[in-house]
Amino acid sequence: MRIVTAAQMKQIECNADAGGLSYLQMMENAGTAAYQIIRAHKPDAHVLAIVAGKGNNGGDGFVIARLAAQDGLAVRVVLAEGEPVTVDAKTNFHRLDGLNVTVCPIEQIDRLTDADVVIDALYGTGFHGTLRPSGAKACCFMNESGAYLAALDLPSGIHADTGAVAEGAVHADLTVTFDSYKPLHVQETSKPYCGEIVLADIGISEECHNGIG
Ligand SMILES: NC(=O)C1=CN([C@@H]2O[C@H](COP(=O)(O)OP(=O)(O)OC[C@H]3O[C@@H](n4cnc5c(N)ncnc54)[C@H](OP(=O)(O)O)[C@@H]3O)[C@@H](O)[C@H]2O)[C@@H](O)CC1
Ligand SMILES: [K+]
Asked: Which parts of the sequence bind (6S)-NADPHX (predicted)?
């Protein structure tokens, strides 16, 4: 079982990119793997709500939104922190243009009452500190939705390396993590927030991990 810190994960991704697997392709692989795992857990789901942050964790969520819309599911995307800011998340956000995906701001999150599955794409390894008001509102919605709650990489509001759990953090039914486990997945403080943990292969070769983890 390989456990790596957020910084080590970044180094592994950098090695993979240098070896020809682009960051955009890693995001595609992460979103695709997570979508397949979530569908296998909830094959009867019809309505998906994806709560997206502005970083790459949100980008993984946009990949899922596209795949689900192409499969004919009803898809709602909440931009919990406004529009995405990273290059790859922006690319995947714009790939939703023309698809049957409802995009709404955080102010309208309470209207999303019909989701069978809620996907937490708010914060991944980039989370630090405490939840700010919009993030807290988004986490509160996810925790109280009553839907099956699947977190991408880690539940939002948890520090990947220390396992510190911010007040109001997401309490998931399923966490799909990418390439390697992170310390929070095994720490006593944070593990109970992850629900079932599934490790997804995102195509990074073994040699990219040499000397790490
Ligand atoms: N690298 C890759 O190629 C791949 C990465 N992958 C995925 O990317 C994830 C890592 O992405 P990432 O590094 O962009 O960080 P992410 O977790 O989205 O969060 C950063 C954002 O959160 C914000 N933020 C932080 N704390 C906050 C707070 N307390 N309250 C409010 N906001 C807060 C922060 O804002 P800032 O603090 O800068 O204002 C920033 O905007 C990783 O977990 C995996 O899912 C996969 O696709 C595989 C390929
Ligand atoms: K997340």
From this structure: 56-60, 124-130, 153
